[in-house]
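Journal club side-thread
Mid-discussion, someone asked how the predicted structure for our own chain would compare to the paper's figures. Pasting it here so we can look after the session.
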Amino acid sequence: MTTSADANSAGVVVRPPFLYGAGFIAVLALRWFRPMPLVGHGGPLWAALALSVVGVAIVLLGRRALVAGGTNVDPVLPTTAIVTTGPYRFSRNPVYVGLTLLYLGLTSAFNTWWSVILLVPILAVMHRGVVRREERYLEQKFGERYRQYCGRVRRYL
């Protein structure tokens, strides 16, 4: 785990898949102790499945765009290029948006408010400990080119 930015790293506090995975495990554990259902018996499994599928698709498209752009997917590794194609035309962080949808889909399948409650701290860590750090790093590394990209494309949606 990297904790401070340098010339070759954004200094993210956690790799995003690990954060969302830990959140998922915590939701399952908390649900076991106190279920707190979102809806009555069962719940809309089709909606959870749809969210999961859309999330996976966005993650895969974002990953493919990063690889095609010649840069690292892992935010702990150095960024070598600003990618502005594929889903990066619409969001500066499509992989993180996709991970959020996947998390919501998977946890909603277990029909518990814990999925929503734990999403709040997950998103706080993502925003402050990953996204903002990446933005500072990319601005330092790519300067005006990155600032122009930020002016054209939203951070999330």
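Post-session note: The helical segments are 16-33, 45-68, 94-108, 114-142, 144-152.
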